Structure formats: C-alpha cells, structure tokens
Amino acid sequence: MPLPPVPPVVVTFVFGVPAPPPPPPVFAVPLLPSPVVLLPPPPPPPVPPLPAVVPPLPPPPPPAYKVLK
User: Which residues fall within 8 angstroms of residue 8, CB to CB, at 6 or more apart?
Assistant: First the structure.
C-alpha cells in the first residue's frame, strides 16, 4: 500500500553546515542609564574649490640699463 504524498519540508539546519554568523555587535557604553550608540565621526567639511581664473602676473620692472641703437 503506497504512502500518502508528504508535503515538502524546509530544512533550516543541516549537520556539517556552519551556522550563519551572528549580527555585528552594537558598541554601547554600559555605564550610562541608556545605551549610547557610538556613531562614526562626521566627514570633514568640503574644501572650497580653487578659483578658475589665475590673477595676472605684475608687469616686469623696467630695465636698469638703456639700449643704445
């Protein structure tokens, strides 16, 4: 006499397969009444862009000698 069909069973753990890693810990300070989660430091402020136009150089000084023709 054949057995009745068995519904599929979802296997959540198989021997020989490691368990999933635990979630990462939350860093908290236990000395305070409520745990304070330490957040990473804020990013540094953006650096202002350099001016696109370079100021012109000052004119060269006049020569200290006279050109004879």
Answer: none
pLDDT digits (tens, 9 = 90+) for 17-54: 666 777 776 665 555 555 556 677 778 788 777 766 76
Q: For residue 31, what are its two tokens? A: 């000395």
Contact 29, 35 (CB under 8 A): yes
pLDDT tens-digit readout, 4-23:
776 666 555 556 666 677 77
Question: What Å distances lie between residue 67 and 7, 25, 39, 62, CA to CA?
Answer: 108, 82, 72, 12
39 alpha-carbon distance from chain centroid: 13
Question: Is the pTM above the cut of 0.70?
Answer: no
